[in-house]
C-alpha cells in the first residue's frame, strides 16, 4: 500500500461528518494471506500483551518490537476476514508507541540542526521532518488499524470508546510530528465522537472536548453531555470503588471542565463545577454522599443503582493498560458479548434513570426533614442559587483557582446572580517556586526559610492587591475597619497563607508616608492591659490590613455550618443545665517530645481564666486517644496543646501526638463533634493540606470542621513557640469572659487582632504571624 496517498476534497468533507464510523475502511490491513491456526492467533495475541506489559514496566524498546511482531502475527491469522477488535487496537497503540520513541530519539540526536532550521526556514524544517522521520510507515499502519478498530465497534461501549481514543491518539501524533499528510477522519470529528460517548472515561472525554473549537456545533452539546454524567462519576461510587483512593484523573478532568466553562462564558457553571470538584474523596469517606443516604432509607434502590453504575462505568480492557484491549478467544464469542453488553447497557441505563428519580424523592424528603439541602447538594452538581450563593450572606467568598498558568478568582457575592471572574495574573513561575516554598517551610532551622516565605508572599501580593476593590466596590477605603471575607483556594494555592500576602519593601509606592504609623493601645482595665482589635496598620501593605479572613474547605460547608449554628441558637434556652465547658488536652513531657515553655504559659492562662468546674484537663497519661475522643462530644470548646506530624503519603494518618498513640484524621472521621463550637490546634501545620490532594483539604483542622465544629483555628506552617504563645495568649484574653465562658463568635476578630499585633512586633518575619488561620464561620 502507499504511504503518501492524500484524501481528495470530497473525502475531507466526508471525514468532517461523524457518520464515518459506520463505513467500512477502504484501506486493507497490511497483512499477508498466510494461514495461521486459531490457537496460534490466540497465543500470539496473549504473548504480545505480555511483551507490551513488560515494555510498559521496563521501557525496553526490544520488548515493544517483540510485542508488535506478536500482534502482527495475530492479525495475519485474520487475513481476508473482519479483524478482531483487540488485535487491531493493540497493534495501533504499540505502533504509535514505537514511532514516538524513535521520533524523540531522532530529534534528540539532531537537536542542533533542528534548532538552526527552526530559526531560519520553515520549508527546510518540513524537508527535515520528511527526510529524517524514522519509520513513518508505523504511523500510517497505525492509522489503518485504528480505523478498522473503530469500524469494528460502531456503538456505545467501552471497546468503542477505547477504539476512538486510539484513533484520536494516532491523528494527534500525525498532526504533531508533521511527517505525514493528514487523511482519514479529522481530529476534530474524532474528538467530537469521543466527547459525547458516555462509555468513555471522564478524562478521555474532557481531553477530547478541550480540542474542539468553541465555534463547533457540537461543543456545547458535548459539554452538556459530560456534565450530565458527572453525578454518576463523582457521587455514586459502586461497591468496587476504593473510597480512599485519590481520583487524580477525575480532579484534573474537572479542572479542565472549569476552564472550558469560563471559555464558554459561563461563570455560573464554572463555579458549580469548582464546588463539585472539592471534597469528593472526603464525602465518600464520611458518608455524606447520596449513596449513603439512600442506602440508609431504601437499601434496594441503592443496590440497584450500584449495579447500574458498575455496568455503565465499566471500562474493561487490559488491567493497568488504559487503551489496550484484552484479546478474547473466539470471534463468535466476541460478537455475542458485544450484543449482550449493548443490551445490558440499555437496560441498566433505564434502571439508573428510574432509580435516580426515586433517589431524588428520598433525598428531598431527607433534606426537608433536616431542614437542609445537604444530601441533595452532594448528589448533583451543586446549584449556584441554592447551594453556593447563600454562603456569601455574611461576606464574600473568594474561590482561587489556577487555570492555564493564570490565577483566577471566582467571587461569590451576596445579591449577585452569577459569580464574578477576576483574572489576577500570570503564574507560570508558581510550580517551581512552590516546590521551593514547601521544602523551606518544613525546615525550621534553615536560614533561608524566612527569606523563601517572604519572597513567595511578596511575589503573589501584587496580583491579589486589587481584590478589595472588586469585593467591596468604589466605597472601599483602606483606612476603614478590615472587612470580613472567606477564602476557598485550590491546588497548590491551598498551601499558602493568602490572607497574609504582603509587600515587605520599605519604599512601597502606595504607602509613601501618607498614613499614620502603627500604634498600640493599652487599657489598664482590660485583662493583661491588652485591648483586642486596637492594633492595626493604617497602611495597606498587607491583606491583613484590609480584610479579616477565614478559610473554608468547600463553599457549601459554610452554609451547613451556619444552619447548625442557627439551630443551636434556637434551642439554647431549652437546656440551661448544660453549662459551657472547655477541654484542654496536653500530652506534656509524657509524649516523649520536647516540652515548649511558651505553650506551658498558655496552659496556665487557660487554667486561670476558666473556672475548674468548667474545665476538663487531660494531661500526661490521661491525654490518650481513648479518653480524648469521647470527651470531644461533651464539650463546647477544646484546646490541643500537642506536637503534630504530617504523613505526606497518607493524609489520613496525620495527627496529634498524645500519650498512648497519635490522634489521627482517621480517628476523627467517623466521630460527630456537633456540640463543639470552637477548637484551637496549637501545633505545627495542622491546617496544611497535602500537596498531592490539595482540593480535598484533608487536614486535622478541616476534619474537625467537617465533622461539626463551626470554628477551628490551626496553622499552615510550623511556627515558633514564642510567637504561637503570644498569639494564643492575646486571643484567649478576649475570647474567655470573666465567668469562664468561650464566645466563639468573637474568635475571628480576636485572632485577626492577635496576628496583627504579632506582625507589628515582627513585620519582616512572616513565619511568626502568617501561619495562623481560622476555618469555618
Count up the helices.
30
Q: How many individual domains?
A: 3
Query: Which structural category do the helix and sheet elements fall into?
Result: alpha/beta
For the biggest β-sheet, the strand order reads 7-6-8-12-13-14
C-alpha-based Rg, rounded: 31 Å
Report strand %. 5-15%
Output the CATH class name of the largest domain: Alpha Beta
DSSP strand count? 14
Regions with little confidence, pLDDT below 50 for 5+ residues: 1-12, 237-246, 372-378, 507-539
Task: Using the coordinates shown, work out and report the CATH topology of the largest domain.
Answer: Rossmann fold
What's the architecture of the largest domain, going by CATH? 3-Layer(aba) Sandwich
Shape: elongated
N/C terminus separation: 70 Å
Relative helix content = 40-55%
Summarize the entry for a quick read.
The protein has 777 residues and is α/β, with parallel strands linked by helices.
Structural features:
30 helices; 777 residues; 6-stranded mixed beta sheet; alpha/beta
Give a verbal description of the structure:
- This protein starts with 8 loop residues before the first helix and ends with a strand.
- Helix 5 packs antiparallel against helix 6, helix 17 crosses helix 18 and helix 29 packs antiparallel against helix 30 (about 745-760).
- The longest helix has about 40 residues, at about 330-370.
- The chain has 3 domains: about 1-185, no CATH class; about 185-395, no CATH class; about 545-570 and about 580-775, Rossmann fold, CATH 3.40.50.1460.
- The chain contains 30 helices and 14 strands.
- With about 775 residues, the protein is of the alpha/beta class.
Amino acid at each position: 500500500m502507499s504511504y503518501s496517498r492524500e484524501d481528495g476534497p470530497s473525502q475531507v468533507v466526508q471525514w468532517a461528518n461523524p457518520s464515518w464510523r459506520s463505513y467500512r475502511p477502504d484501506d486493507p490491513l497490511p497483512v499477508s494471506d498466510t494461514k495461521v491456526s486459531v490457537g496460534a492467533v490466540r497465543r500470539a495475541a496473549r504473548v504480545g500483551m505480555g511483551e507490551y506489559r513488560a515494555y510498559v514496566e521496563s521501557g525496553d524498546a526490544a520488548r515493544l518490537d517483540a510485542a508488535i511482531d506478536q500482534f502482527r502475527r495475530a492479525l495475519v491469522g485474520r487475513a481476508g476476514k473482519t479483524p478482531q477488535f483487540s488485535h487491531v487496537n493493540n497493534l495501533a497503540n504499540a505502533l504509535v508507541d514505537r514511532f514516538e520513541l524513535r521520533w524523540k530519539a531522532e530529534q534528540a540526536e539532531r537537536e542542533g540542526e533542528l534548532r538552526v532550521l527552526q530559526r531560519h526556514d520553515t520549508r527546510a524544517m518540513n524537508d527535515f521532518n520528511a527526510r529524517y522521520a524514522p519509520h513513518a510507515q508505523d504511523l500510517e499502519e497505525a492509522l489503518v488499524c485504528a480505523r478498522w478498530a473503530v469500524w469494528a465497534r460502531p456503538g456505545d461501549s467501552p471497546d468503542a470508546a477505547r477504539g476512538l481514543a486510539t484513533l484520536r491518539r494516532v491523528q494527534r501524533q500525525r498532526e504533531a510530528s508533521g511527517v505525514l499528510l493528514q487523511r482519514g477522519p479529522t481530529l476534530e470529528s474524532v474528538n467530537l465522537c469521543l466527547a459525547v460517548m458516555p462509555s468513555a472515561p471522564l478524562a478521555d472525554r474532557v481531553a477530547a472536548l478541550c480540542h474542539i473549537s468553541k465555534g463547533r456545533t457540537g461543543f456545547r452539546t458535548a459539554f452538556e453531555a459530560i456534565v450530565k454524567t458527572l453525578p454518576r462519576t463523582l457521587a455514586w461510587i459502586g461497591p468496587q470503588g476504593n473510597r480512599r483512593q485519590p481520583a487524580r484523573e477525575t480532579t484534573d478532568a474537572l479542572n479542565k471542565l472549569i476552564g472550558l466553562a469560563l471559555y464558554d462564558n459561563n461563570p455560573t457553571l464554572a463555579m458549580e463545577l469548582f464546588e463539585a470538584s472539592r471534597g469528593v474523596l472526603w464525602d465518600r469517606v464520611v458518608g455524606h454522599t447520596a449513596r449513603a443516604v439512600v442506602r440508609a432509607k431504601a437499601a434496594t434502590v441503592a443496590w440497584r443503582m450500584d449495579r447500574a453504575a458498575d455496568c455503565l462505568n465499566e471500562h474493561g480492557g487490559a488491567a493497568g493498560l488504559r487503551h489496550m484491549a484484552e484479546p478474547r478467544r473466539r470471534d463468535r464469542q466476541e460478537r455475542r458479548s458485544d450484543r449482550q453488553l449493548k443490551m445490558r447497557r440499555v437496560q441498566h441505563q433505564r434502571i439508573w434513570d428510574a432509580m435516580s428519580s426515586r433517589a431524588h424523592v428520598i433525598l428531598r424528603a431527607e433534606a426537608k426533614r433536616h431542614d437542609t439541602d445537604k444530601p441533595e447538594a452532594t448528589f448533583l452538581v451543586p446549584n449556584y442559587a441554592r447551594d453556593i450563593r447563600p454562603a456569601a450572606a455574611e461576606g464574600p467568598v473568594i474561590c482561587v483557582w489556577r487555570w492555564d498558568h493564570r490565577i483566577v478568582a471566582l467571587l461569590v457575592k451576596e445579591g449577585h446572580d452569577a459569580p464574578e471572574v477576576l483574572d489576577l495574573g500570570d503564574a507560570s513561575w508558581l510550580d517551581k517556586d512552590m516546590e521551593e516554598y514547601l521544602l523551606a517551610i518544613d525546615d525550621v532551622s534553615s536560614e533561608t526559610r524566612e527569606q523563601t516565605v517572604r519572597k513567595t508572599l511578596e511575589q503573589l501580593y501584587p496580583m491579589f492587591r486589587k481584590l478589595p476593590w472588586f469585593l467591596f466596590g468604589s466605597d472601599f477605603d483602606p483606612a476603614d475597619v478590615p472587612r470580613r471575607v472567606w477564602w476557598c483556594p485550590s491546588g497548590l494555592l491551598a498551601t499558602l497563607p493568602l490572607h497574609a500576602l504582603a509587600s515587605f519593601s520599605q519604599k512601597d509606592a502606595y504607602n509613601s508616608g501618607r498614613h499614620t504609623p502603627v500604634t498600640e493601645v493599652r487599657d489598664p482595665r482590660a485583662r493583661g492591659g491588652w485591648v483586642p482589635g486596637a492594633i492595626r496598620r493604617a497602611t495597606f501593605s498587607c491583606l491583613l490590613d484590609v480584610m479579616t479572613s477565614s478559610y473554608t474547605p468547600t463553599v457549601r460547608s459554610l452554609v451547613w455550618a451556619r444552619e447548625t449554628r442557627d439551630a443551636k441558637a434556637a434551642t439554647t434556652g431549652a437546656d440551661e443545665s448544660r453549662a459551657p465547658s472547655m477541654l484542654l488536652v496536653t500530652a506534656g513531657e509524657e509524649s516523649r517530645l520536647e516540652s515548649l515553655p511558651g505553650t506551658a504559659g498558655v496552659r496556665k492562662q487557660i487554667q486561670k481564666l476558666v473556672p475548674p468546674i468548667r474545665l476538663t484537663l487531660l494531661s500526661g497519661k490521661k491525654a490518650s486517644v481513648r479518653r480524648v475522643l469521647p470527651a470531644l462530644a461533651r464539650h463546647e470548646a477544646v484546646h490541643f496543646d500537642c506536637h503534630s506530624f504530617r504523613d505526606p503519603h497518607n493524609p489520613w494518618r496525620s495527627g496529634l501526638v498524645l500519650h498512648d498513640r497519635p490522634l489521627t484524621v482517621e480517628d476523627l472521621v467517623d466521630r460527630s463533634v456537633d456540640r463543639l463550637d470552637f477548637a484551637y490546634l496549637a501545633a505545627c501545620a495542622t491546617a496544611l493540606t497535602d500537596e498531592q490532594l490539595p482540593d480535598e483539604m484533608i487536614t486535622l483542622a478541616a476534619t474537625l470542621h467537617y465533622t461539626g465544629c463551626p470554628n477551628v483555628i490551626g496553622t499552615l506552617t510550623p511556627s515558633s513557640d514564642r510567637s504561637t504563645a503570644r498569639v494564643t495568649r492575646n486571643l484567649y484574653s478576649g475570647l474567655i469572659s470573666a465567668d469562664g465562658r468561650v464566645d466563639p463568635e468573637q474568635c475571628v476578630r480576636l485572632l485577626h487582632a492577635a496576628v496583627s499585633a504579632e506582625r507589628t512586633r515582627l513585620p519582616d518575619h512572616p513565619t511568626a504571624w502568617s501561619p495562623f488561620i481560622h476555618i469555618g464561620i
